[in-house]
Amino acid sequence: MTVPGKTSAESAPARKLRVVMAQLDFLVGDIPGNTELIIQASREAHEQHQADLVVFPELCLTGYPPEDLLLRPSLDLRVEEALQRLKQAELVPAIVIGTPLRADGLLYNTAVVIEGGHTRGVYFKRCPPNYQVFDEKRYFAEGRDSLVVDIKGVPVGITVCEDLWKDGPLEDAAGAGAQLILNLNASPYDIDKQARRKALLQRKASENRVSIVYVNLVGGQDELVFDGGSMVYDHAGTLAVEIPQFTDGLFPVDFLCEHHCQPVSAPLPEEPSLETNVYNALVTGVRDYVNKNGFKSVVLGLSGGIDSAVTLAVAVDALGKERVRAVMMPFRYTSSASLEDAEAQASALEVHYDVFSIEPMYDSFMATLAQPFEGTKPDTTEENLQARLRGVLLMALSNKFGSMVLTTGNKSEMAVGYSTLYGDMAGGFDVLKDVPKTLVFRLARYRNTLSPVIPERVITRPPSAELAPDQKDEDNLPGYDILDQILHLYVERDYSAEAIVAEGFERADVERVTRLVDINEYKRRQAPIGVRITERGFGKDRRYPITNGWKIGH
């Protein structure tokens, strides 16, 4: 008998549901390996956590983003083989995985629910994103339907990543009776991303009176870094569980489901500082790029300056000191301070350290060029030659020993072209490519709070490329505190030069900086990739034509 004023669901006894969030690192394209990782994680979730349900990230079967691997003719066969393997694995808990799946001739970004060796439900992502680093509409059709599936007596709605950011998908699932929403994500890190996620989850949970399990990918994939940060919000919009960012593992949460699905709260991690998060993102990006691509080790030029100092620290923290080689390549303009500081840092981090002077090679090149250069004055040609000789040395070491070259240019330099093609830009991965110079200084300070490995003088003395006598970066650029603000507005916010001037910056500085940004697109197109940590990095985020007639600064 139904009690007047109550539905049969409200009259039923409370149901318990244990959900395990699988915040894991998957390798793009390795469908067999990713399938085995899902199986092993599901078994571990059962044996160690007695899971009823294990939730994996978006497109975990292929890794994210698979890009044009999705266009390969063999994709459908490989996915079908993987799904059959998962069904035959005799997994005890129900699992929800992300995979590409074709239906009626169209490819969808899909969440599949598997339980007891059978497919319990299939959900097609309804809102494939097509902005910033995302171009899912190149590959995926839009789903139209909701999915609510019964798991241990609990009505569970499924959504995928961007579905949560648009109105409709979650609301429809809640309207169809879902008490608990699972949201599978491959959401890349940027500096403010976790705060934006939390504000969204709080609003969506409280407005729809449903609890939300947000499961995110962790790890590095080319320039993208996924920070995890998986969370659970209850139906009142209260954060009940949060997994530390940049940590992989299986994380259980219990729900008591009666009128609502109420998660059992857990102590929340301490809010990390911006420097902590950025540094962890850099370490994750370097570690996964080097390891997933099979490099034995890395080598970098250690100049005694702050960029190479931070890059070296990140490399050691990512890979271990045994896999990192630092090379000082002095010239006549290299100061004694640079020599001393580079040696001190290499010693503090206990890495393999070499000193190779480029003076003899420079003299040989200049002797060869004496005839064509006769009657000309020294200019940036001679400065660039120094950088290119250093690049040749590093690439030779890379070839001989199988080490990948890490370059050390920061975002401020990449923006204005303060770098040398085939010189300091020569290498496989630029650790600081999306890190403004002012933030580089902050990261150096932060790293020294963990252990003092960067000499204080490296942080405090004026930055210099040391390619000419008494050279300073700010001889040719505005101070970095001004430069980085202008670049933020122009590169990341798309302000015009006039709009930046209206913000209070000197017109001469603005016009010079915006011009440098525009004319150096050709350099950036030839630069190595690097970790993305802002909302708009150079590369996937910002795609400008090299050849164009757009008026500079507009």
UniProtKB/TrEMBL annotation:
Residues reported in the UniProt entry to bind ATP: 301-308, 408
GO molecular function terms listed in the Swiss-Prot or TrEMBL record: ATP binding; glutaminase activity; NAD+ synthase (glutamine-hydrolyzing) activity; NAD+ synthase activity
Sequence positions that bind deamido-NAD(+): 384, 413, 523
Residue ranges of domain CN hydrolase in the record: 17-257
Pathway: Cofactor biosynthesis; NAD(+) biosynthesis; NAD(+) from deamido-NAD(+) (L-Gln route): step 1/1
InterPro entries (alphabetical): C-N_Hydrolase, C-N_Hydrolase_sf, Gln-dep_NAD_synthase, NAD/GMP_synthase, NAD_synthase, Rossmann-like_a/b/a_fold
GO CC annotations, alphabetized: cytoplasm
Binding site for L-glutamine: 131, 187, 193
GO biological process: NAD+ biosynthetic process
EC number: 6.3.5.1
Keywords: ATP-binding, Ligase, NAD, Nucleotide-binding
Keyword DNA damage appears in the UniProt entry: no
Keyword Chloroplast listed: no
Active-site residue list: 58 (proton acceptor), 125 (for glutaminase activity), 161 (nucleophile)
Catalytic activity entry: deamido-NAD(+) + L-glutamine + ATP + H2O = L-glutamate + AMP + diphosphate + NAD(+) + H(+)
Transmembrane segment boundaries: none
Similarity comment: family membership: Belongs to the NAD synthetase family.
Record function comment: Catalyzes the ATP-dependent amidation of deamido-NAD to form NAD. Uses L-glutamine as a nitrogen source.
Record HAMAP family: NadE_glutamine_dep
Protein name according to UniProt: Glutamine-dependent NAD(+) synthetase
Provenance organism: Marinobacter halophilus
Lineage: Bacteria, Pseudomonadati, Pseudomonadota, Gammaproteobacteria, Pseudomonadales
